[in-house]
């Protein structure tokens, strides 16, 4: 049927089959048309084996072939209902050729999916892949040292346990290096080269070059460093000195100097490469299918792409562990052991630097991922998080609760504390058309709070009990224990000559709290009794609103408050270092004015490094070791101003309910009353 559909007129004549040289050994004369039909049979057979249901095994038989043909015929009939059905009959002559036509496809590696010469496999050179390697080259079965070198039992017992263990570790280094190179080959050939040569393209042509460069560009340098300076050398020494190998210390020292830069650069690129692969797999179904096919390939040993991407980093750590085991099993204090100790330290230094690069890039990648997940609502265009900018940092994140529009409506909030913003969002999941759940997004319904305008209002409020029927209620017994215990951060009353930061809604003071410090320990009993007990703390967006956030435990609340204070402190220090503060503060009066209140005075949290904190410190130094005078006014302060006297003295004036007080500008304790009656103008 296929031969009839694909039939074309030709004027060329052929004398034998170009694929199997048929008719050279055949009896009798063969016409040109018969030869063309014979070649068409080859094409027909190849087409059947290219389909997904084509058999891929050496014990191929005619029954399996006929079943495959029936599937093709059914498919063709469904696509072409007007075509006449015909039974398959071979057009080959009755005289069977020496080389069966089907054997060509069974013996040639190109036509087997599992073969590395398959059309689905990457094209590799003979230098990169040894064609004579056994099919089981990726099997995990490995010979131990004694079996590999055929060491007798008597020789093993004579050598001693420590030496045998040392030789086994050296043998493991060699075998592990072979497996490591194979994993790098899988990454280079099975993933990278196959991705580049895939037809149709798995990744759009405009993106694929950059994608391959960002993900795979550093692996070749790592592969070359080990293939040129480590693997051949240790294998040669194994052949020359085996079974009793002296060691590899000189080889490792030479190798780490040549490989250092390659491994550091690979470590720096690894987090972003992993992120790119995961991000592409989320949105590209063809790429997900490509990864699944690569994982199912025999060369992958059913391992996913991440195992091959992080192979260089894991191997570098493995070198240090193996070398340390060799040192511990070395009985003689010889030059080999001393050199091995040096090699271990050199490899350790490179590994530590790689870890630092991985950690640094992981933080950047996490911020890049968050940037894509955060969804700002309309009207928030002026908020520029700029999470990809240099120096940006995620200080803390976690899940908190806050009340909705009613006291019975609770919202789960994802809180993200950056070095410049506090973001309160709701985690949502987005489903694609195919029903696959995409990674969560963060819907930001409240305006992100800049660090300059963020104030921690309270950190030690009474725990509350959450109820769907009654809303919230204070847990009074626990609160009594809290007040009597006094555990948590201690904020003592100021002594003589000391100032206390008072509650002020200023972005630079950032010293607004309530209570006497966090009590993170005394409420543990409550946590064990009822998991619906929540621990509130308040933050204010100056000029906007105050949020009461609820943590699920006292320790979690304490951790959040600590992180908020750390973020404020770092931000204040950064502004001061860059001379970016809008203005400086100074204390006008440290003890002259006071309020009488029936409520106990609140202790403020001091944010170190803020303009308010520095102003208080300056006054404390000015009146060091001096008693604190009593206040001269306990009335409400209504206004204040600065003015110059006729003789040029710079003065301050404060208006209260009971009169006007003046003082020299530079003397916080020089206040005196100058007017007892205040008449409105």
Give the SSE layout.
Elements: H1 2-5, H2 32-50, H3 62-79, H4 103-107, H5 145-149, H6 153-159, H7 161-197, H8 205-216, H9 219-229, H10 231-241, H11 249-283, H12 285-296, H13 305-309, H14 311-328, H15 335-373, E1 374-376, E2 394-403, E3 410-418, E4 421-428, E5 441-444, E6 449-450, E7 454-458, E8 464-467, E9 471-474, H16 476-485, H17 524-529, E10 533-541, E11 546-551, H18 554-577, H19 611-622, E12 637-644, E13 650-656, E14 659-664, E15 672-675
Parallel strand pairs: 1-5
Antiparallel strand pairs: 2-3, 3-4, 4-5, 4-6, 7-10, 8-9, 8-10, 10-11, 12-13, 13-14, 14-15
Helix pairs in contact: 7-8, 7-9, 7-10, 7-14, 8-11, 9-11, 11-12, 11-15, 14-15
Quick tags:
681 residues; alpha+beta; Dbl Homology Domain, Chain A; PH-domain like; five-stranded antiparallel beta sheet; 13% strand
How would you characterize this protein structure?
There is one protein chain. Helix 7 runs antiparallel to helix 8, helix 11 packs parallel to helix 15 and helix 14 packs antiparallel against helix 15. Strands 1, 2, 3, 4, 5 and 6 form a six-stranded mixed beta sheet that branches. The chain folds into four domains: 110 residues, no CATH class; 227 residues, Dbl Homology Domain, Chain A (Up-down Bundle), CATH 1.20.900; 184 residues, Pleckstrin-homology domain (PH domain)/Phosphotyrosine-binding domain (PTB) (PH-domain like); 50 residues, no CATH class. It is 43% helix and 13% strand. It is elongated. Strand 8 and strand 9 form a beta hairpin. With 681 residues, it is of the alpha+beta class. It has 19 helices and 15 strands.
């Amino acid at each position: 049927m296929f031969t009839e559909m694909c039939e074309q007129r030709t004027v060329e004549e052929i004398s034998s089959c170009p694929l199997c040289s048929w008719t050279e050994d055949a009896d009798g004369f063969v016409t040109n048309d018969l030869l063309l039909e014979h070649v068409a049979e080859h094409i027909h057979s190849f087409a059947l084996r290219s389909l997904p249901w084509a058999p891929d095994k050496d014990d191929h038989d005619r029954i399996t072939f006929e079943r495959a043909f029936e599937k093709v015929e059914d498919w063709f009939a469904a696509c072409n209902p007007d075509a006449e059905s015909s039974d398959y009959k071979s057009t080959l002559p009755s005289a069977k050729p020496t080389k069966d036509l089907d054997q060509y496809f069974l013996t040639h590696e190109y036509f087997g999916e599992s073969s590395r010469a398959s059309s689905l496999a990457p094209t590799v050179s003979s230098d990169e892949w040894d064609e004579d390697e056994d099919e089981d080259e990726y099997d995990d079965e490995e010979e131990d040292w004694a079996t590999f070198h055929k060491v007798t039992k008597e020789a093993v017992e004579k050598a001693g346990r420590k030496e045998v263990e040392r030789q086994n570790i050296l043998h493991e280094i060699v075998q592990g290096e072979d497996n490591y190179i194979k994993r790098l080959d899988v990454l280079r050939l099975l993933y990278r080269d196959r991705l580049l040569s895939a037809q149709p393209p798995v990744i759009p042509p405009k993106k694929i070059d950059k994608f391959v460069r960002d993900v795979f560009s550093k692996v070749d340098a790592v592969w070359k460093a080990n293939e040129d300076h480590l693997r051949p050398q240790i294998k040669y020494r194994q052949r020359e000195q085996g079974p009793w190998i002296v060691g590899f210390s000189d080889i490792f020292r030479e190798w780490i100097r040549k490989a250092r830069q390659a491994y550091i650069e690979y470590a720096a690129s690894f987090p972003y490469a992993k992120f790119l692969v995961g991000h592409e797999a989320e949105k590209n179904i063809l790429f997900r299918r490509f990864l699944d096919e690569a994982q199912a390939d025999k060369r992958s040993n059913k391992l996913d792409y991440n195992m091959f991407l992080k192979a260089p980093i894991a191997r570098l750590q493995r070198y240090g562990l193996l070398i340390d085991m060799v040192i511990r099993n070395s009985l003689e204090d010889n030059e080999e052991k001393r050199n091995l100790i040096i090699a271990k330290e050199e490899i350790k230094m490179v590994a530590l630097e790689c870890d630092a690069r991985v950690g640094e890039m992981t933080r950047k990648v996490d911020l890049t991922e968050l940037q894509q997940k955060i969804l700002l609502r309309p009207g928030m265009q002026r908020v520029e998080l700029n999470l990809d900018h240099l120096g940006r940092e995620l200080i803390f994140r976690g899940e908190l609760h806050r009340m909705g529009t009613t006291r019975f409506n609770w919202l789960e909030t994802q809180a993200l504390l950056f070095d410049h913003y506090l973001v309160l969002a709701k985690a949502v999941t987005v489903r694609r058309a195919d029903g696959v759940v995409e990674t969560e997004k963060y819907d930001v319904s409240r305006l992100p709070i800049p660090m300059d305008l963020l104030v921690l209002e309270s950190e030690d409020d009474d725990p509350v009990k959450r109820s769907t029927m009654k809303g919230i209620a204070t847990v009074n017994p626990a609160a009594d224990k809290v007040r009597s215990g006094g555990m948590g951060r201690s904020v003592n009353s100021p002594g003589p000559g000391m100032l206390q930061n008072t509650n002020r809604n200023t972005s630079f003071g950032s010293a607004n709290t309530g209570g006497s410090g966090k009590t993170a320990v005394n409420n543990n009993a409550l946590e064990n009794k009822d998991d619906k007990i929540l621990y509130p703390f308040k933050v204010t967006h100056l000029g906007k609103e105050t949020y009461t956030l609820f943590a699920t435990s006292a320790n979690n609340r304490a951790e959040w408050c600590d992180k908020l204070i750390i973020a404020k402190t770092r931000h204040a220090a950064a502004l001061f270092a860059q001379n970016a503060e809008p203005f400086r503060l100074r204390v006008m009066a440290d003890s002259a004015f006071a309020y009488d209140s029936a409520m106990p005075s609140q202790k403020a949290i001091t944010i170190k490094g803020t303009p308010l904190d520095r102003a208080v410190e300056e006054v404390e130094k000015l009146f060091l070791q001096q008693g604190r005078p009593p206040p001269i006014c306990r009335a409400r302060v209504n206004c204040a101003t600065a003015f110059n006297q006729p003789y040029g003295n710079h003065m301050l004036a404060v208006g209260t309910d009971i009169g006007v007080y003046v003082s020299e500008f530079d003397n916080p304790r020089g206040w005196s009353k100058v007017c007892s009656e205040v008449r409105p103008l």
